[in-house]
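Input (6-phospho-beta-glucosidase):
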Amino acid sequence: MNTTTIFPENFLWGGAVAANQCEGAWLEDGKLPNVTDALIGILSKNPSVKWDEEKQIWEIALDEDKDYLSHIAVDFYHRFEEDLKLMSEMGLKAFRTSISWSRIFPRGDEDTPNEAGLLFYDRMIDTMLKYGMEPVITLSHYETPLALVGEYGGWTNRKLIGFFDKYARTIFERYQGKVKYWMTFNEINNAFRMPYAAAGVISFPPSDPKEPLKDIDDKAIYQACHHLFVANALATKALREIDEDAMMGIMCSFSAIATYAWDSDPENVFGALEFRRNSWFFSDVMCRGHYPGYVKRIWSENGTEPEIKVGDLELLQENTSDYIAFSYYRSAVYDKSAEMKVDTGGAKGFDNPFLKEKSPEPWSWPIDPKGLRYVMNELTDRYELPLFIVENGIGLDETPDENGRINDVERCRYLKMHLEEMAEAVKDGCELLGYLWWGPFDIVSAGTGEMKKRYGFIYVDRHNDGSGDLHRQKKDSFNYYKQVIETNGADLEIKI
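Output:
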């Protein structure tokens, strides 16, 4: 496919990471724990916390037998200048990361921000700008301060709206004119399957401390979602007041939108629709500005309607998003007889017999570049808003060979196939702001909390057992992505 004239000159080729997966320094310069600091991986249903009966709060309680790799991660906190310089050598036009909420308001409910945390992000953002990269910033990437969960009940408590509003306004005022692209909550549509990480919701303590936490009821999660929606609307309103040149986007995991019916059985076709609505619900509210009818039916039939205060619905209607940021990794197939499982890559049902390639074991994610084009068209048809691909990539288990080389041609092939389909979607009429590869250097895996699953164009010497000297090393894909960016997507030929 010839993409010579497809992408505009200002197209944002870049990379994306998250503070909790790369920074480390988890208790440095005044920072206190956030929700992911108490997890090995975000898919875990049992965070490392304990219930203090006397204080009636949850507190962090790390397990000495577990390795919390994210506490050091890849030490981006101390090495960001080196890493951003490498990103600039690759030609990145944009770099996405998150601001760790608990670096700025360590508990989340303070009156004044932590200046040391702000100074760190001053340096980081200024370094991005020095190297010609647009900062793309997420305000909370699974990073709700733990104290807001342990003492307030997380986003089920309406007080968090005010805490988040103060945090967002502090950040917008600090970086006015420096950051053009913002997102509030990373993959907000994961609130139901990962309520602790995505919505800061934790269940009541079990009667026996050795027993696992009970599942959280849907009514509580819908309430948390409503508060998240109101907080998103207020942040959007605040940004427009403070920096009218900046844009606020939603951020959803939209691999699930590429969920195909197994066959033409109407039960499977409608079942796939209902499964997809689990994600549409979030973007419908934040992009259209109101709750859709299908959700109101669920509330009515299951008694799960959240409490909605006077003025909330007007806020949602008046403060919809400027663009849609999303992640895409793979597609899925729905069948009424199969259990649909979801992990960090998206949904998994029946194997799709028409897809011939998977990522290598042990993850074995189906590779479906056409699914990306499908999702982009679906989003454009539904919302007619600019799109921003802020996560796409492939995790591989890799180590340097005897010559110190990492020949990751599989990564290059995955990238090439998805860029080809992305170009076709632009031809289809999709307005695309940019493409950010997840993650341009190796970081701690979100889902499993390990280093073994590597996404980067740059190898970081750290391993699942915590060993490694953290040195950075270019993989062969580094030069391939550099080639893609230098030619603005015109030359996708793999020459390694």
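The mean pLDDT is 94.
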